[in-house]
Amino acid sequence: MRDIVRFSVRQRAEHASVMVLFTVLVITGMPQKYYDAAFSGTLVHLMGGVGATRLIHRVAGVLFALTIVAHLGVAIWQVATRRLSQLAIVPRRQDYLDALATLRWYLGLSKQKPLFDRYDYRQKFEYWGMVAGSMIMVATGIVLLFPVVIGSLLPGQLIPAAQVAHSMEGLMAFLVVIVWHIYNAHLNPDVFPFDWSIFNGKISRHRMIEEHPLELARIEGVPVESIVPKPETPASPGKQPVETPAG
Amino acid sequence: MIGTLLIASLLAQARPAEVDKCLACHGTASEIRLNSGEVLNLRIDAETFSRSSHMRKLACTDCHASLKNATGMHPVQRFDTRREYTIAFSDACQKCHFTNYKESLDGVHRARIDAGRMEAAVCSDCHGAHEIGPPGEPRSRVSDTCATCHARIAQEYTRSVHGQGVLSGNEDMPVCTDCHHAHDIADPRKAGFRLRSPQICAECHTDAKRMAKYKLSTGVLRTYFSDFHGATVKLQAGRAGEVAAVALCTDCHGAHNVTKVSDPHSPVLKSNLLATCQKCHQGAKADFPAAWLSHVEPSATRAPLVYLVKLLYRFLIPFMIGGLALQVILHLWRIVVNR
Questions:
Q1: Residue B94 and residue B27 share a domain
Q2: Which residue range is the domain that position B25 belongs to?
Protein backbone atom coordinates (compact mmCIF):
# COMPACT_ATOMS: atom_id res chain seq x y z
CA MET A 1 0.00 0.00 0.00
CA ARG A 2 1.38 3.36 -0.94
CA ASP A 3 2.49 5.91 1.61
CA ILE A 4 1.05 9.36 2.00
CA VAL A 5 3.13 12.45 2.68
CA ARG A 6 2.13 13.71 6.11
CA PHE A 7 4.83 16.16 7.23
CA SER A 8 6.81 18.73 5.29
CA VAL A 9 10.57 19.06 5.54
CA ARG A 10 10.13 22.18 7.68
CA GLN A 11 7.84 20.36 10.10
CA ARG A 12 10.26 17.46 10.36
CA ALA A 13 13.16 19.83 10.96
CA GLU A 14 11.18 21.61 13.67
CA HIS A 15 10.46 18.30 15.37
CA ALA A 16 14.10 17.24 15.17
CA SER A 17 15.22 20.57 16.61
CA VAL A 18 12.73 20.42 19.48
CA MET A 19 13.58 16.79 20.17
CA VAL A 20 17.32 17.38 20.43
CA LEU A 21 17.02 20.65 22.36
CA PHE A 22 14.40 19.27 24.73
CA THR A 23 16.70 16.35 25.55
CA VAL A 24 19.65 18.67 26.13
CA LEU A 25 17.51 20.94 28.30
CA VAL A 26 16.28 18.01 30.39
CA ILE A 27 19.78 16.60 30.88
CA THR A 28 21.21 19.99 31.87
CA GLY A 29 18.12 21.16 33.74
CA MET A 30 17.15 18.19 35.92
CA PRO A 31 20.42 18.14 37.90
CA GLN A 32 19.83 21.81 38.71
CA LYS A 33 16.33 21.00 39.96
CA TYR A 34 17.41 17.89 41.87
CA TYR A 35 20.71 19.36 43.09
CA ASP A 36 20.75 16.93 46.04
CA ALA A 37 20.39 13.71 44.05
CA ALA A 38 23.45 11.54 43.49
CA PHE A 39 22.96 11.48 39.72
CA SER A 40 23.05 15.28 39.59
CA GLY A 41 26.60 15.61 40.87
CA THR A 42 27.83 12.92 38.49
CA LEU A 43 26.00 14.38 35.50
CA VAL A 44 27.13 17.94 36.17
CA HIS A 45 30.70 16.76 36.61
CA LEU A 46 30.55 14.84 33.32
CA MET A 47 29.35 17.97 31.56
CA GLY A 48 32.32 19.91 32.90
CA GLY A 49 30.96 21.46 36.06
CA VAL A 50 28.02 23.60 37.02
CA GLY A 51 29.21 26.58 34.96
CA ALA A 52 29.47 24.53 31.78
CA THR A 53 26.15 22.80 32.50
CA ARG A 54 24.40 26.14 32.85
CA LEU A 55 26.04 27.49 29.71
CA ILE A 56 24.84 24.49 27.69
CA HIS A 57 21.37 24.86 29.22
CA ARG A 58 21.19 28.54 28.33
CA VAL A 59 22.45 28.10 24.77
CA ALA A 60 19.99 25.24 24.21
CA GLY A 61 17.25 27.36 25.78
CA VAL A 62 17.91 30.25 23.42
CA LEU A 63 17.90 27.89 20.41
CA PHE A 64 14.69 26.30 21.68
CA ALA A 65 13.09 29.73 22.02
CA LEU A 66 14.19 30.58 18.47
CA THR A 67 12.63 27.35 17.17
CA ILE A 68 9.34 28.21 18.86
CA VAL A 69 9.41 31.81 17.64
CA ALA A 70 10.20 30.67 14.08
CA HIS A 71 7.41 28.10 14.18
CA LEU A 72 4.78 30.50 15.48
CA GLY A 73 6.06 33.25 13.18
CA VAL A 74 5.60 31.07 10.12
CA ALA A 75 2.09 30.04 11.26
CA ILE A 76 1.06 33.64 11.83
CA TRP A 77 2.55 34.66 8.49
CA GLN A 78 0.69 31.84 6.75
CA VAL A 79 -2.62 32.94 8.20
CA ALA A 80 -1.93 36.65 7.67
CA THR A 81 -1.08 36.15 3.99
CA ARG A 82 -4.09 33.83 3.64
CA ARG A 83 -1.94 30.94 2.55
CA LEU A 84 -4.04 29.07 5.05
CA SER A 85 -7.44 30.40 5.97
CA GLN A 86 -7.66 28.08 8.95
CA LEU A 87 -5.02 26.00 10.65
CA ALA A 88 -5.81 22.31 10.96
CA ILE A 89 -4.32 22.29 14.44
CA VAL A 90 -6.80 24.78 15.92
CA PRO A 91 -9.18 23.02 18.33
CA ARG A 92 -12.86 23.09 17.41
CA ARG A 93 -16.09 21.88 18.94
CA GLN A 94 -15.76 18.54 17.17
CA ASP A 95 -12.59 17.77 19.18
CA TYR A 96 -14.50 17.82 22.47
CA LEU A 97 -17.18 15.56 20.96
CA ASP A 98 -14.41 13.28 19.64
CA ALA A 99 -12.83 13.10 23.10
CA LEU A 100 -16.16 12.05 24.63
CA ALA A 101 -16.81 9.58 21.82
CA THR A 102 -13.34 8.08 22.31
CA LEU A 103 -14.00 7.73 26.02
CA ARG A 104 -17.25 5.90 25.22
CA TRP A 105 -15.35 3.65 22.84
CA TYR A 106 -12.64 2.96 25.48
CA LEU A 107 -15.34 2.01 27.97
CA GLY A 108 -17.12 -0.24 25.47
CA LEU A 109 -20.19 1.99 25.28
CA SER A 110 -19.90 2.42 21.52
CA LYS A 111 -18.80 0.03 18.78
CA GLN A 112 -16.88 2.48 16.64
CA LYS A 113 -14.19 4.95 17.48
CA PRO A 114 -14.72 8.46 16.13
CA LEU A 115 -13.29 9.35 12.74
CA PHE A 116 -10.47 11.87 12.93
CA ASP A 117 -9.28 14.49 10.52
CA ARG A 118 -5.68 15.62 10.05
CA TYR A 119 -5.01 15.98 13.78
CA ASP A 120 -7.04 14.17 16.41
CA TYR A 121 -7.89 15.81 19.73
CA ARG A 122 -4.94 14.14 21.49
CA GLN A 123 -2.48 15.52 18.98
CA LYS A 124 -4.02 18.98 19.28
CA PHE A 125 -3.85 18.75 23.05
CA GLU A 126 -0.19 17.76 22.96
CA TYR A 127 0.60 20.48 20.42
CA TRP A 128 -1.09 23.31 22.34
CA GLY A 129 0.22 21.95 25.61
CA MET A 130 3.68 22.20 24.18
CA VAL A 131 3.11 25.70 22.81
CA ALA A 132 1.78 26.93 26.17
CA GLY A 133 4.50 25.10 28.10
CA SER A 134 7.20 26.50 25.83
CA MET A 135 5.89 30.03 26.32
CA ILE A 136 6.09 29.57 30.10
CA MET A 137 9.57 28.05 29.88
CA VAL A 138 10.88 30.77 27.58
CA ALA A 139 9.33 33.61 29.60
CA THR A 140 10.53 32.31 32.97
CA GLY A 141 13.88 31.39 31.43
CA ILE A 142 14.37 35.00 30.33
CA VAL A 143 13.58 36.16 33.89
CA LEU A 144 16.19 33.76 35.28
CA LEU A 145 18.74 34.76 32.66
CA PHE A 146 18.40 38.49 33.40
CA PRO A 147 17.40 38.76 37.07
CA VAL A 148 18.95 42.17 37.60
CA VAL A 149 17.17 43.73 34.61
CA ILE A 150 13.85 42.11 35.50
CA GLY A 151 14.27 43.08 39.15
CA SER A 152 14.69 46.73 38.20
CA LEU A 153 11.55 46.75 36.04
CA LEU A 154 9.17 44.41 37.86
CA PRO A 155 8.59 43.20 41.43
CA GLY A 156 11.60 41.21 42.67
CA GLN A 157 9.41 38.34 43.82
CA LEU A 158 8.86 37.46 40.16
CA ILE A 159 12.37 36.00 40.09
CA PRO A 160 11.87 33.21 42.65
CA ALA A 161 8.33 32.71 41.29
CA ALA A 162 9.84 32.25 37.82
CA GLN A 163 12.35 29.82 39.24
CA VAL A 164 9.57 27.69 40.76
CA ALA A 165 7.48 27.89 37.57
CA HIS A 166 10.48 27.03 35.34
CA SER A 167 11.36 24.10 37.56
CA MET A 168 7.80 22.72 37.88
CA GLU A 169 6.74 23.34 34.28
CA GLY A 170 9.95 21.67 33.15
CA LEU A 171 9.19 18.65 35.30
CA MET A 172 5.65 18.49 33.94
CA ALA A 173 6.86 18.71 30.34
CA PHE A 174 9.35 15.93 31.01
CA LEU A 175 6.66 13.71 32.55
CA VAL A 176 4.22 14.41 29.71
CA VAL A 177 6.86 13.34 27.23
CA ILE A 178 7.64 10.20 29.24
CA VAL A 179 4.03 9.18 29.83
CA TRP A 180 2.20 10.51 26.81
CA HIS A 181 4.57 11.10 23.93
CA ILE A 182 6.65 7.97 24.44
CA TYR A 183 3.43 5.96 24.54
CA ASN A 184 1.89 7.54 21.47
CA ALA A 185 5.03 7.49 19.36
CA HIS A 186 6.61 4.24 20.54
CA LEU A 187 4.75 1.96 22.95
CA ASN A 188 1.28 2.30 21.48
CA PRO A 189 0.61 -1.10 19.82
CA ASP A 190 -0.64 0.73 16.70
CA VAL A 191 2.81 2.19 16.00
CA PHE A 192 5.15 0.02 18.11
CA PRO A 193 8.11 0.21 18.18
CA PHE A 194 8.63 3.47 16.36
CA ASP A 195 6.38 5.91 14.54
CA TRP A 196 8.64 7.09 11.72
CA SER A 197 6.25 9.57 10.15
CA ILE A 198 7.68 12.70 11.82
CA PHE A 199 11.17 11.63 10.66
CA ASN A 200 10.56 10.49 7.07
CA GLY A 201 7.39 12.53 6.60
CA LYS A 202 5.39 9.51 5.42
CA ILE A 203 2.46 7.59 6.81
CA SER A 204 0.98 4.37 5.43
CA ARG A 205 -2.47 4.45 3.85
CA HIS A 206 -3.49 1.76 6.31
CA ARG A 207 -2.68 4.01 9.27
CA MET A 208 -4.46 6.93 7.58
CA ILE A 209 -7.59 4.79 7.38
CA GLU A 210 -7.26 3.95 11.07
CA GLU A 211 -6.18 7.33 12.40
CA HIS A 212 -7.10 10.10 9.95
CA PRO A 213 -9.90 8.78 7.66
CA LEU A 214 -11.53 12.17 7.16
CA GLU A 215 -8.28 13.66 5.85
CA LEU A 216 -7.68 10.63 3.64
CA ALA A 217 -11.16 10.89 2.15
CA ARG A 218 -10.55 14.55 1.36
CA ILE A 219 -7.15 13.84 -0.20
CA GLU A 220 -8.58 11.10 -2.39
CA GLY A 221 -11.78 13.01 -3.10
CA VAL A 222 -14.07 10.21 -2.02
CA PRO A 223 -16.78 10.03 0.65
CA VAL A 224 -15.45 8.83 3.99
CA GLU A 225 -17.96 5.97 3.98
CA SER A 226 -16.06 4.39 1.13
CA ILE A 227 -12.86 4.34 3.18
CA VAL A 228 -14.10 3.27 6.60
CA PRO A 229 -16.24 0.19 6.39
CA LYS A 230 -19.24 -0.45 8.63
CA PRO A 231 -20.23 3.06 9.58
CA GLU A 232 -22.84 1.79 12.02
CA THR A 233 -23.13 5.01 13.96
CA PRO A 234 -21.51 7.48 11.63
CA ALA A 235 -19.83 10.24 13.47
CA SER A 236 -20.99 13.52 11.98
CA PRO A 237 -17.74 15.24 11.30
CA GLY A 238 -19.23 18.63 10.52
CA LYS A 239 -17.41 21.00 8.25
CA GLN A 240 -13.68 20.37 8.23
CA PRO A 241 -10.92 22.68 7.10
CA VAL A 242 -10.01 21.91 3.54
CA GLU A 243 -6.42 23.05 3.62
CA THR A 244 -3.46 21.12 4.80
CA PRO A 245 -0.61 23.12 6.27
CA ALA A 246 1.79 24.38 3.73
CA GLY A 247 5.19 22.77 3.58
CA MET B 1 54.13 29.44 103.80
CA ILE B 2 54.02 25.84 104.90
CA GLY B 3 51.52 25.10 102.15
CA THR B 4 53.77 26.58 99.50
CA LEU B 5 56.69 24.58 100.75
CA LEU B 6 54.58 21.45 100.70
CA ILE B 7 53.50 21.97 97.08
CA ALA B 8 57.02 22.83 96.09
CA SER B 9 58.34 19.69 97.64
CA LEU B 10 55.61 17.61 96.01
CA LEU B 11 56.48 19.11 92.66
CA ALA B 12 60.12 18.51 93.30
CA GLN B 13 59.38 14.93 94.17
CA ALA B 14 57.28 14.38 91.11
CA ARG B 15 59.79 15.91 88.73
CA PRO B 16 61.74 13.32 86.76
CA ALA B 17 65.29 13.20 88.06
CA GLU B 18 66.65 13.98 84.61
CA VAL B 19 65.08 17.43 84.71
CA ASP B 20 67.31 18.44 87.61
CA LYS B 21 70.33 17.20 85.72
CA CYS B 22 69.48 19.49 82.79
CA LEU B 23 68.53 22.39 85.00
CA ALA B 24 71.97 22.22 86.57
CA CYS B 25 73.17 24.07 83.48
CA HIS B 26 69.95 25.38 81.91
CA GLY B 27 68.58 26.68 85.17
CA THR B 28 70.84 29.69 84.97
CA ALA B 29 71.10 32.28 82.27
CA SER B 30 73.35 31.29 79.41
CA GLU B 31 73.14 33.04 76.10
CA ILE B 32 74.53 31.94 72.79
CA ARG B 33 74.79 33.89 69.59
CA LEU B 34 73.49 32.19 66.43
CA ASN B 35 75.05 32.63 63.00
CA SER B 36 72.21 34.99 62.14
CA GLY B 37 73.32 37.23 64.99
CA GLU B 38 70.26 36.41 67.06
CA VAL B 39 70.82 35.78 70.74
CA LEU B 40 69.23 32.66 72.13
CA ASN B 41 68.78 32.33 75.86
CA LEU B 42 69.20 28.71 76.91
CA ARG B 43 67.81 29.24 80.39
CA ILE B 44 64.69 27.22 81.26
CA ASP B 45 62.57 28.68 84.00
CA ALA B 46 61.94 25.78 86.40
CA GLU B 47 58.89 27.56 87.78
CA THR B 48 57.27 27.91 84.36
CA PHE B 49 58.06 24.34 83.41
CA SER B 50 56.56 23.07 86.67
CA ARG B 51 53.22 24.60 85.65
CA SER B 52 53.16 23.06 82.15
CA SER B 53 50.95 20.17 81.13
CA HIS B 54 54.02 18.06 80.42
CA MET B 55 55.40 18.40 83.93
CA ARG B 56 55.52 15.10 85.77
CA LYS B 57 54.79 13.28 82.51
CA LEU B 58 57.81 14.01 80.41
CA ALA B 59 61.50 14.34 80.96
CA CYS B 60 63.59 16.78 78.91
CA THR B 61 65.00 14.16 76.55
CA ASP B 62 61.55 12.82 75.75
CA CYS B 63 61.30 15.85 73.49
CA HIS B 64 64.99 16.68 73.12
CA ALA B 65 65.52 13.09 72.00
CA SER B 66 68.89 13.61 70.34
CA LEU B 67 70.34 14.35 73.76
CA LYS B 68 69.22 11.10 75.31
CA ASN B 69 71.94 9.43 77.35
CA ALA B 70 74.18 12.46 76.91
CA THR B 71 76.54 12.94 79.81
CA GLY B 72 78.20 16.14 80.84
CA MET B 73 78.31 18.64 78.03
CA HIS B 74 75.96 17.30 75.31
CA PRO B 75 76.83 17.57 71.62
CA VAL B 76 76.39 21.03 70.15
CA GLN B 77 73.36 21.48 67.90
CA ARG B 78 73.85 23.67 64.88
CA PHE B 79 71.12 26.03 63.67
CA ASP B 80 71.65 29.32 61.86
CA THR B 81 68.44 31.01 63.04
CA ARG B 82 66.02 30.67 65.94
CA ARG B 83 63.21 30.02 63.45
CA GLU B 84 65.12 27.17 61.84
CA TYR B 85 65.50 25.58 65.26
CA THR B 86 61.81 26.05 66.17
CA ILE B 87 60.56 24.57 62.90
CA ALA B 88 62.95 21.64 63.00
CA PHE B 89 62.00 20.97 66.59
CA SER B 90 58.24 20.88 65.91
CA ASP B 91 58.75 17.36 64.57
CA ALA B 92 59.31 16.19 68.15
CA CYS B 93 55.63 16.55 69.10
CA GLN B 94 54.46 13.76 66.76
CA LYS B 95 55.96 11.14 69.06
CA CYS B 96 52.96 11.55 71.35
CA HIS B 97 50.54 13.75 69.39
CA PHE B 98 50.63 11.85 66.14
CA THR B 99 47.03 12.50 65.03
CA ASN B 100 47.32 16.22 65.52
CA TYR B 101 50.72 16.23 63.87
CA LYS B 102 49.38 14.34 60.88
CA GLU B 103 46.45 16.73 60.58
CA SER B 104 48.78 19.68 60.69
CA LEU B 105 50.60 18.30 57.64
CA ASP B 106 47.40 19.02 55.67
CA GLY B 107 47.06 22.46 57.20
CA VAL B 108 47.58 25.79 55.56
CA HIS B 109 50.38 26.75 57.99
CA ARG B 110 52.46 23.76 56.99
CA ALA B 111 51.78 24.47 53.32
CA ARG B 112 53.12 28.00 53.81
CA ILE B 113 56.29 26.72 55.44
CA ASP B 114 56.79 24.23 52.63
CA ALA B 115 56.46 27.18 50.26
CA GLY B 116 59.28 28.92 52.11
CA ARG B 117 57.21 31.24 54.30
CA MET B 118 58.96 30.41 57.56
CA GLU B 119 56.81 32.71 59.69
CA ALA B 120 53.81 30.36 59.39
CA ALA B 121 52.92 28.75 62.70
CA VAL B 122 54.31 25.43 63.92
CA CYS B 123 53.24 23.55 67.08
CA SER B 124 55.12 25.60 69.65
CA ASP B 125 54.08 28.94 68.14
CA CYS B 126 50.50 28.28 69.25
CA HIS B 127 50.99 25.88 72.15
CA GLY B 128 54.21 27.22 73.65
CA ALA B 129 57.16 25.01 74.50
CA HIS B 130 58.21 24.63 78.11
CA GLU B 131 55.16 26.53 79.35
CA ILE B 132 52.72 24.36 77.36
CA GLY B 133 49.17 24.31 78.75
CA PRO B 134 45.56 23.42 77.81
CA PRO B 135 45.00 25.43 74.61
CA GLY B 136 41.30 26.18 75.07
CA GLU B 137 41.03 27.15 78.74
CA PRO B 138 39.40 29.58 78.87
CA ARG B 139 37.94 29.32 75.35
CA SER B 140 38.84 32.92 74.59
CA ARG B 141 42.48 31.84 74.83
CA VAL B 142 42.09 30.32 71.37
CA SER B 143 41.40 33.62 69.64
CA ASP B 144 44.14 35.28 71.70
CA THR B 145 46.55 32.65 70.39
CA CYS B 146 45.50 33.22 66.76
CA ALA B 147 45.65 36.99 67.34
CA THR B 148 49.41 36.71 67.80
CA CYS B 149 49.67 36.64 64.02
CA HIS B 150 46.12 37.36 62.79
CA ALA B 151 45.63 40.56 64.76
CA ARG B 152 43.31 42.39 62.37
CA ILE B 153 40.93 39.46 61.96
CA ALA B 154 40.99 38.78 65.70
CA GLN B 155 39.98 42.38 66.30
CA GLU B 156 37.04 42.04 63.90
CA TYR B 157 36.09 38.80 65.58
CA THR B 158 36.07 40.21 69.12
CA ARG B 159 33.53 42.79 67.98
CA SER B 160 31.30 40.19 66.25
CA VAL B 161 28.29 38.51 67.81
CA HIS B 162 30.30 35.31 68.12
CA GLY B 163 33.36 36.97 69.63
CA GLN B 164 31.33 39.00 72.10
CA GLY B 165 29.60 35.81 73.20
CA VAL B 166 32.88 33.98 73.77
CA LEU B 167 34.30 36.90 75.75
CA SER B 168 31.26 36.85 78.03
CA GLY B 169 31.81 33.13 78.65
CA ASN B 170 29.04 31.84 76.37
CA GLU B 171 29.83 28.21 75.58
CA ASP B 172 27.58 28.12 72.50
CA MET B 173 29.59 30.62 70.53
CA PRO B 174 32.36 29.50 68.20
CA VAL B 175 36.03 30.31 68.64
CA CYS B 176 38.43 30.43 65.68
CA THR B 177 39.15 26.70 65.70
CA ASP B 178 35.47 25.69 65.73
CA CYS B 179 35.18 26.94 62.17
CA HIS B 180 38.79 26.74 60.95
CA HIS B 181 39.96 23.68 62.92
CA ALA B 182 43.14 23.71 64.97
CA HIS B 183 45.52 21.49 63.02
CA ASP B 184 44.09 20.67 59.59
CA ILE B 185 43.32 24.30 58.88
CA ALA B 186 42.14 24.62 55.28
CA ASP B 187 43.07 27.64 53.18
CA PRO B 188 39.91 29.74 53.45
CA ARG B 189 40.55 31.33 50.06
CA LYS B 190 40.43 27.99 48.27
CA ALA B 191 37.36 26.43 46.65
CA GLY B 192 37.24 23.42 48.96
CA PHE B 193 36.87 25.51 52.09
CA ARG B 194 34.49 27.98 50.52
CA LEU B 195 32.16 25.30 49.19
CA ARG B 196 32.22 23.47 52.53
CA SER B 197 31.63 26.64 54.52
CA PRO B 198 27.80 26.51 54.63
CA GLN B 199 28.12 23.14 56.38
CA ILE B 200 30.49 24.74 58.90
CA CYS B 201 27.88 27.37 59.80
CA ALA B 202 25.22 24.66 59.78
CA GLU B 203 26.99 22.64 62.47
CA CYS B 204 25.57 25.11 64.98
CA HIS B 205 22.82 26.80 62.98
CA THR B 206 20.89 23.56 62.35
CA ASP B 207 21.27 22.46 65.99
CA ALA B 208 17.71 22.89 67.23
CA LYS B 209 18.59 22.87 70.92
CA ARG B 210 21.23 25.54 70.59
CA MET B 211 19.29 27.74 68.16
CA ALA B 212 16.13 27.63 70.31
CA LYS B 213 18.00 29.53 73.01
CA TYR B 214 18.46 32.47 70.67
CA LYS B 215 15.16 32.06 68.80
CA LEU B 216 17.03 31.41 65.55
CA SER B 217 15.64 29.33 62.70
CA THR B 218 17.26 25.97 61.92
CA GLY B 219 15.78 26.08 58.41
CA VAL B 220 18.51 28.40 57.18
CA LEU B 221 20.57 25.68 55.51
CA ARG B 222 17.59 24.02 53.81
CA THR B 223 16.24 27.30 52.51
CA TYR B 224 19.71 28.30 51.38
CA PHE B 225 20.22 25.13 49.35
CA SER B 226 16.76 25.35 47.81
CA ASP B 227 17.73 28.72 46.36
CA PHE B 228 19.91 29.29 43.30
CA HIS B 229 23.01 30.19 45.36
CA GLY B 230 22.80 27.10 47.54
CA ALA B 231 22.00 24.76 44.67
CA THR B 232 25.13 26.05 42.92
CA VAL B 233 27.18 25.16 45.99
CA LYS B 234 25.62 21.68 46.16
CA LEU B 235 26.37 20.97 42.53
CA GLN B 236 30.03 21.86 42.99
CA ALA B 237 30.62 20.28 46.37
CA GLY B 238 33.39 17.73 46.38
CA ARG B 239 34.48 18.67 42.87
CA ALA B 240 37.83 20.34 42.85
CA GLY B 241 38.85 22.90 40.34
CA GLU B 242 35.80 24.95 39.67
CA VAL B 243 34.17 27.68 41.70
CA ALA B 244 31.33 29.40 39.98
CA ALA B 245 30.59 32.82 41.35
CA VAL B 246 28.21 32.08 44.17
CA ALA B 247 27.14 33.74 47.40
CA LEU B 248 27.97 31.74 50.51
CA CYS B 249 26.66 32.37 54.04
CA THR B 250 29.67 34.56 54.79
CA ASP B 251 29.35 36.59 51.59
CA CYS B 252 26.07 38.10 52.81
CA HIS B 253 26.35 37.78 56.60
CA GLY B 254 30.04 38.46 56.97
CA ALA B 255 32.52 36.02 58.48
CA HIS B 256 34.67 37.30 61.34
CA ASN B 257 32.54 40.41 61.67
CA VAL B 258 29.20 38.56 61.64
CA THR B 259 26.44 40.40 63.44
CA LYS B 260 22.94 39.63 64.62
CA VAL B 261 20.58 40.00 61.65
CA SER B 262 18.76 42.68 63.63
CA ASP B 263 21.94 44.71 64.20
CA PRO B 264 21.78 48.11 62.46
CA HIS B 265 25.10 47.30 60.78
CA SER B 266 24.03 43.85 59.62
CA PRO B 267 24.61 43.54 55.87
CA VAL B 268 21.42 41.50 55.61
CA LEU B 269 19.20 44.01 57.37
CA LYS B 270 16.51 45.12 54.92
CA SER B 271 17.89 48.64 54.63
CA ASN B 272 21.40 47.30 53.91
CA LEU B 273 20.41 44.37 51.73
CA LEU B 274 20.48 46.09 48.34
CA ALA B 275 24.10 47.14 48.88
CA THR B 276 24.92 43.54 49.85
CA CYS B 277 23.28 42.15 46.69
CA GLN B 278 25.13 44.72 44.61
CA LYS B 279 28.46 43.24 45.71
CA CYS B 280 27.82 40.56 43.07
CA HIS B 281 24.77 41.80 41.14
CA GLN B 282 26.10 45.06 39.78
CA GLY B 283 23.35 47.37 38.71
CA ALA B 284 20.70 45.77 40.94
CA LYS B 285 17.98 48.26 41.76
CA ALA B 286 15.36 48.90 44.39
CA ASP B 287 13.22 45.76 44.42
CA PHE B 288 15.96 43.29 43.51
CA PRO B 289 16.48 42.04 47.10
CA ALA B 290 12.86 40.82 47.07
CA ALA B 291 14.13 38.10 44.72
CA TRP B 292 15.78 36.56 47.76
CA LEU B 293 13.27 34.92 50.08
CA SER B 294 15.26 35.64 53.28
CA HIS B 295 15.49 31.98 54.34
CA VAL B 296 11.69 31.89 54.61
CA GLU B 297 9.48 29.14 53.14
CA PRO B 298 7.00 30.81 50.78
CA SER B 299 3.51 31.01 52.30
CA ALA B 300 0.26 32.87 51.73
CA THR B 301 1.70 35.81 53.66
CA ARG B 302 5.43 35.57 52.86
CA ALA B 303 6.18 35.58 49.11
CA PRO B 304 2.57 34.76 48.15
CA LEU B 305 3.29 34.72 44.41
CA VAL B 306 5.95 32.04 44.80
CA TYR B 307 3.62 30.12 47.10
CA LEU B 308 0.75 30.27 44.60
CA VAL B 309 2.88 29.09 41.70
CA LYS B 310 4.12 26.19 43.82
CA LEU B 311 0.58 25.32 44.90
CA LEU B 312 -0.75 25.49 41.35
CA TYR B 313 1.79 23.00 40.06
CA ARG B 314 1.35 20.73 43.04
CA PHE B 315 -2.21 20.15 41.80
CA LEU B 316 -1.64 20.56 38.07
CA ILE B 317 1.16 18.01 37.70
CA PRO B 318 -0.66 15.03 39.29
CA PHE B 319 -3.88 16.01 37.50
CA MET B 320 -2.18 16.25 34.12
CA ILE B 321 0.03 13.17 34.39
CA GLY B 322 -2.69 11.13 36.09
CA GLY B 323 -5.18 12.04 33.38
CA LEU B 324 -2.78 11.16 30.58
CA ALA B 325 -1.77 7.89 32.25
CA LEU B 326 -5.44 7.00 32.62
CA GLN B 327 -5.99 7.56 28.90
CA VAL B 328 -3.01 5.35 28.10
CA ILE B 329 -4.41 2.60 30.31
CA LEU B 330 -7.90 2.90 28.80
CA HIS B 331 -6.46 2.76 25.29
CA LEU B 332 -4.40 -0.35 26.06
CA TRP B 333 -7.39 -1.94 27.73
CA ARG B 334 -9.59 -1.32 24.68
CA ILE B 335 -6.98 -2.90 22.40
CA VAL B 336 -6.73 -5.98 24.61
CA VAL B 337 -10.52 -6.30 24.81
CA ASN B 338 -10.94 -5.95 21.06
CA ARG B 339 -8.47 -8.75 20.33
A1: no
A2: 1-67
